[in-house]
Design goal:
The structure is a homotetramer. The first copy, chain A, is built from 11 helices and 18 strands. Chain A has about 350 residues and is an alpha/beta fold. Chain A folds into 2 domains: about 150 residues, Rossmann fold; about 180 residues, Dihydrodipicolinate Reductase, domain 2 (2-Layer Sandwich), CATH 3.30.360.10. Chains in contact: A-B, A-C, A-D, B-C, B-D, C-D. At the A-B interface, β7, β8, β9, β10 and β11 of A face β7, β8, β9, β10 and β11 of B. β8 of chain A pairs antiparallel with β16 of chain B, so a sheet runs across the interface.
Chain lengths: ~350, ~350, ~350, ~350
């Protein structure tokens, strides 16, 4: 950590960063670590040499197909990993063992035990381990958590999320592992709770090997249901979460061009006409508020937070334990999926 | 059928209709049977005398709080029943026994056996028995069925429906029985198939007695999943169904003001860059077509079809068997709901 | 006013109404006067006998092709006129002379002088004369006026309106006279002011005789511009008005399904970076509020207000003078249209 | 043009580019010229030294506050100018005189005569002069032009455009010169014609010196009206153009997330009911098509086209004459604006 130690107040030398994996998401990390004042993107690594021409031209950084180059370079203080999920553990463990801080894209690993190994490695070496649950750095998601915590929504009844589009078809992991980590991360964060059990159903449409669409239910304490629908085989691009409370409701639409959060004042119950001896109630909506949210890019927030944690030693918001909790939900969900949708208690996986 | 036989001129006399139940939906039936040339709305019956002032003024028809008046009147050839679901069987059976044709709002009854009784009663007496699955008379729904039948969508992968709003809270029946019959009816109709099994989860938010929100999965032959989300406790009014096929996809948005059906041409698979030895495919969408649909009111179509069936003796599109099939799905779903979401095979209920 | 004097029971006898003109808009008036408790729809008159079958069946009222029948009937206290605009004056004058209260659809007449004649006739006979500027009974429009009056928007900078669709092509009057009266009525109402001058341009696309599309500018005191775009030859159905003030802005979208009024908090001016010695300011939007508005049908409000004015003798909100002011704007606009878009001062027409 | 001549291999050396002006739009040009394979961004120049830190870090290029540095550098083959409009002429003329190819942001200059000087300078020196009318490189705009040229829309009746937002308030130029050049450029391009006359009205809301909102009408040959509404003081971000033809209509919504172009099949005229002796026609819409458009960034297309023109010597699509035509429309519009909206013939300015 020579680079960081050689800091000076106003002041600090930028953190030397190596990015591993320049596929779908890697370019976004590279762009941010290149443009942030606190970091110095020194390496982009990809096993595919052809993928390296672009980052070389765009960022003027070193490139390599050999991860060992990065681990051996003392100027690299931190490694950002944006490779396929199944490689996360091996790459992250090697980086930690080489004394590098690590930012891993979601999911942290594919296995709960492996995640614990990474957590322990980072703790032993006093290194920052962070997982890229980028939505926890999103001002809309933070608004929802704050509203829930402040009691503005009243009791939480249920929430549901839909994250679908016509997009990248993956053949090595299913829609649960590829897409739903976002929704799980958001749900755990806004409710500040861990589900007790899960149930997951899915359908293999394209290649018969992985689920292209999944329907997932998280059972939180207090009878709060969170339902998640994720798919990469859908006509419309939707990224939407609804939280229904006893006082207010929130819809978070991440693709809205006008304002991503809408707060619905539910208004009072109104007793309707009595017909056939049966009481009927009618809910009616009240005012709707679209709050102004700060428009910073969540990924930039995440990257800046990673740099700040490296410098200060503070725990990241999305630290290894955070990634482990999401992973526990994923593992139980996968078990449910393989058991034809049986309910699976967390910890049983 | 004296009324019908006493035809004249163009030439048939209008069918004498009595409406039972002037609550939420009844006024719509009354308006249609009043305005259609082929019918004569003679009675509106409601146990609540106060509810009868409005139909009397609007339609100039007789009103009564006593159902027996209607059954005894030979000028009444047919009875339309828009009362709470738990009263459907008794009222419909009495009408059939009195020799009246019957249109019952959905669900046909609350019990599979009772539905069979109604079917048998109608058959014995050669009377028309029809259930008000109004969406099967909706041009958007018919467009979807035709597109599927013509193979335009290719193989059907899965479909899902969301029917939620902030609306009538019911205390005697849950969201499954109150709202989902529409989605079940549409799914069975467009796929022209019956599910093999179902799974239903729900949440009791408001009063602890009935589910205000349910998530229902229908398992159709051929590994086709249909997922249904229904709630009366939701900030946004949504009535949307998506059908995903191997060639095209359709979104039917019933609250859209521009065109309720969108047909998405899926375009070709596009092989993406090979990264980390893993093949990735990317789907991309093609043209979108919003077909012009005829704008007739589905309920008017339904009412006219009822009149036509009475006159001609043809079986209604949504006949008793149709209503029974929806009921079988509802019954199995209710059993799943009461079994904490266990999968329930149809016929096992 | 025999009918009204013969009050009874809850109190007053319903006002006997005759509707003249059962074409595009007449059915809506008939429906409301039929369903309102305070009125008794006794007649529907149309010169086309075939048009009368529907109202006879729907409302059970008398019908006639002879307007004289209505004028001679003492049970008719008021006449609602929904005929082509060029016939308004003759029909309304005859009704007033026969001692009937009169509701005329917009525009009141085609000529300023004729409008004054109607006003004078009503005043002399102490009769209610009302023009059907229905948007002044719309809760969204009233919200805007209240917000402006309360100073909530700050200084009004400008407003603009678009009212276009693919709809009824008229051959006797142009889009200015057919569509824009709504926007003019709204503008005069929300600003509570009369423009000093107007400018109108248009295009004759279909038949070369009347303008299918017009662009109209109203110059209000205080340098407030109101721009209106009206057309019946447009792909999208739009009914939208925007009011820009120094503190807040309002968009009123009459075809929105979520809430017709949006109030934009403009937020503070933010001084941007200084570049090239030039100060740049950047406006940024703040919270958006979608207020809950009462959902009553504006036309029902209008009809009830007409009945109330007849009973109480109060001046209608949209009285003859109101209709005359709109007409003055229309006449000046027509003169501008015929002068290739020259600016025309009000009163100069 | 040493840089270009020193071609090699695949074969050509990248074109050395200097960007002048790193304010609002400059960073977009810098990003593209940095990332395109055919160009080498060598300089970013801005009179504000503080603005230069960002491009230095992001692109690793030289920076300067002295334009003379660029003009003297033989490695700079071309200059891209993104400074305030009033500086365009001086900077562009100097670059051309120094033998550099020039890309100028819109508007080309503030004066017709100055534009002609630039055109002549470029012609004399055989240099590429291009103006950044970026929408002519937009696939949606190209689709519209192709549809018009192919006769798909039938006769063109009229078009209108709205380009408003709450954005950069300018104090040196008004909304006509700042925003409307886009709409004028699009209109001239899709119609492939020059207007005969213009009329422009506006309102000075904020500082009393420049118009924050303008309403502009272009009168094209064949009685085709194009109406343009531009403002930087508006609650909603709108970038929309509608073209109405006798056979079809197109709406181009640049902020739509689903597809930017919609083609409306107008359907047949339908003769309505005859009422009051007046024939009424009713238009009804037919199918709507949302064609798939290629999603390349228009600015990238523009930059690549500039490079290609430099290499090949071909005339740019948006060459100096193109920029001059837009300028002629702007100049006539400005004269109309200063004459209280009088109609001004093109060439009269």
């Amino acid at each position: 950590m020579a680079a960081v130690n050689a800091s000076s107040e106003a002041g600090l030398a930028p953190v030397g960063i190596a990015l591993v994996g320049y596929g779908y998401w890697g370019p976004n990390l590279a762009r941010n670590f290149h443009s942030l004042a606190g970091s110095d993107l020194r390496y982009v690594v990809d096993s595919n040499a052809q993928a390296l021409a672009a980052p070389q031209r765009l960022f003027g950084c070193a490139t390599s197909t050999d991860y060992a180059d990065v681990l051996a370079d003392p100027a690299v203080a931190a490694v950002a990993i944006a490779t396929p999920a199944r490689t996360h553990f091996t790459l992250a463990a090697a980086a930690l063992r080489a004394g590098k801080h690590v930012l891993v894209e979601k999911p942290l690993t594919m296995d709960v035990g492996e995640a614990q190994v990474l957590i322990d490695l980072a703790a032993e070496r006093n290194l920052t381990l962070m997982v890229g649950h980028v939505f926890e750095y999103n001002p809309a998601v933070r608004y929802i958590r704050a509203a829930i915590e402040a009691g503005e929504l009243g009791d939480i009844y249920y929430l549901y999320s839909r994250r679908v589009n016509l997009g990248r078809v993956q053949s090595d992991i299913n829609a649960l592992w590829s897409i739903a980590p976002h929704d799980i991360s958001i749900a755990l964060y806004v409710l500040n709770a861990l589900p007790e059990a899960v149930r997951c159903q899915g359908s293999r449409c394209l290649n018969g090997q992985v689920e292209d669409v999944i329907f997932l239910t998280l059972y939180f304490p207090g009878n709060i249901i969170c339902h998640i629908h994720a798919s990469w085989l859908d006509p419309s691009k939707t990224r939407e979460m609804t939280v229904v409370g006893s006082r207010k409701m929130i819809v978070y639409d991440d693709v809205s061009t006008e304002g991503k959060v809408r707060v619905y004042d539910k208004g009072a119950f109104r007793k309707g006409d009595v017909t056939y001896g049966d009481f009927q109630y009618k809910l009616h909506s009240g005012d709707i508020l679209i709050p102004r949210l700060d428009m910073r890019e969540p990924l930039q927030e995440e990257c800046a937070h990673f740099l700040e944690c490296i410098r200060s030693g503070q725990r990241p918001l999305t630290d290894g334990e955070n990634g482990l909790r999401v992973l526990q939900v994923l593992a139980a969900s996968q078990q449910s999926l393989e058991s034809d949708g049986a309910k699976v208690a967390l910890g049983a996986a």
